[in-house]
Structures are given as structure tokens and as C-alpha cells.
Amino acid sequence: MNKARKHFLFLVAALSLAGCQPANEGQAPAEGNLVGARMGGDFTLTDQNGKTVRWADFNGQYRLVYFGYTWCPDVCPFDLNKIMAGFRLFEKSDPAKAAKVQPIFITVDPQRDTPAVIKTYVTAFHPRLIGLTGTAEQIEAVKKAFVVVASKTGDPAATKDYLVSHSRTPALFGPDGKPIALVPVDDTMQDGHDDAPPEAVRDFLARFVQ
């Protein structure tokens, strides 16, 4: 097992345990469950409008980051719908704080996810959602930096009609670009509140965005 995958599995195990711990009632935790994790870092990618984008371009903003791909049949649209529905609720409840957050979708399938394809995809979820793609080498570097595991299923030489198996690690990063906490989209992280996932995302943002 390579070093990156070992780190990813350790991170997931730690977060799963952290997600099961009850929060102090009426109090926000001092820090999120990703604080101190070696996750993230600068990159150069291309957004849905064909513009070059670097991680440092978002300095001063919170970053709500999700890795996936537009051809994903179920998990990606399901997660993004939860995340962006929660973000909309946060915009309504605290527009000033919501303005400090930049939602970002990064593809793990650069072969098919061109800027034009991603533009159609992200606009279906929220007008402020930025979609990023790049060369295969750029995406591999970003995956490594953000501890994301992704690979084609079946024939690795396939150019169409293939699926991509990938880790499910949506995360919130702070204005300094450092990781804060895993976004609660998985029902196992809802502390019994899986009946209202958008509200869980809204409350999560309200807890950590200052």
C-alpha cells in the first residue's frame, strides 16, 4: 500500500471517529477535525470559463472543496446537491458570512471533463460554484496534495463509457488555505440527523466560518 493511500485511510478512520463524537451543546468546537492534517496546497488548474486558476487566488476566502466528475451516475450529484442546498440555506441565514465562502468542484476525470462540460455541470447546482479541470498530470498532482484517491474502473485505457472510483472527501478550508473540517454529507456523520442534510451543512458552515 503506497504512502498516500495509507495517509488517506488513516484520515478517513480518524474523521469517522471524530464525526461520532457529540458536540458540546451551545458551543462551537475550538477547531475542526482536519486541523493539522497535511492536506491541500497550491495548484494551477483551469476553470469552467477557460481561465487559469491557482489555489492562492482564493486566499482570504474559505474554500468548500469537492472532488468528483461530471459522468458520475449517483454519488457526485447526490453529494453536490446536499452541499449546495446547505450553502443556499447558509446564504439566507447569514449572507455576510456566506460571501466569504467559495464552493469549488475539482474533477478527477480530466479526460472527459473539459471546461465546457464542467460549466454546464456546475451551473446546475449553484451560480457561485466554480468547476476546475486540467491536464492529467495537473489533476494527479492535486489529488496527491489533497489526499484524494481516484482511478478508472475496468479498462484503464478506456476513453468513454467508464466509471471512476474515487474517495468521498468534501472539505472546508480556511482563508489561509489550510484544512478545517470534513463537510457532513455522509449520513454516518449526521449524528442521527440524516433527515435534514442541507440543514446539517448550513449548521456546519455557521460553526466554522467566522
Task: Give descriptors for this structure.
7-stranded mixed β-sheet, two-stranded antiparallel sheet, single chain, 210 residues, Glutaredoxin, disordered N terminus, alpha+beta
Which helices and strands appear, and what pairs or packs with what?
Elements: H1 3-19, E1 44-47, E2 52-54, E3 62-68, H2 75-93, H3 95-98, E4 101-107, H4 115-123, E5 130-133, H5 136-145, E6 150-152, E7 164-166, E8 171-173, E9 179-182, H6 197-208
Give helix and strand order, one letter per element, not per position: HEEEHHEHEHEEEEH
What is the CATH class name?
Alpha Beta
Shape: globular
- Kindly state the number of beta strands: 9
Task: Give the helix proportion (percent range).
Answer: 25-40%
Class per helix and strand makeup: alpha+beta
Query: The CATH topology is what?
Result: Glutaredoxin
- CATH superfamily, called what? Glutaredoxin
Strand order of the largest sheet: 2-1-5-4-3-8-9
- Tally the helices: 6
Q: Do you know the CATH architecture?
A: 3-Layer(aba) Sandwich
> What number of domains?
1
| Ends apart, CA distance between termini | 39 Å
Radius of gyration: 16 Å
Q: Quick one: biggest sheet? A: 7 strands, mixed
Mean pLDDT: 85
Give the strand content: 15-25%
- Low-confidence spans: 1-30, 189-195
Tell me what the structure shows.
- There is one protein chain.
- The chain is an alpha+beta fold and 210 residues long.
- It has a single domain (3-208), classed as Glutaredoxin (3-Layer(aba) Sandwich).
- The chain is 34% helix and 18% strand.
- It is built from six helices and nine strands; from the N terminus they run H-E-E-E-H-H-E-H-E-H-E-E-E-E-H.
- It has helices at residues 3-19, 75-93, 95-98, 115-123, 136-145, 197-208; strands spanning 44-47, 52-54, 62-68, 101-107, 130-133, 150-152, 164-166, 171-173, 179-182.
- It has a seven-stranded mixed β-sheet with strand order 2-1-5-4-3-8-9, with helices on one face. Strands 6-7 form a two-stranded antiparallel sheet.
- A hairpin with a 5-residue loop joins strand 8 (171-173) and strand 9.
- The radius of gyration is 16 Å and the shape is globular.
- It starts with a helix and ends with a helix.
- The relative contact order is 0.22.
- The model is unreliable at 1-30 and 189-195 (pLDDT under 50).
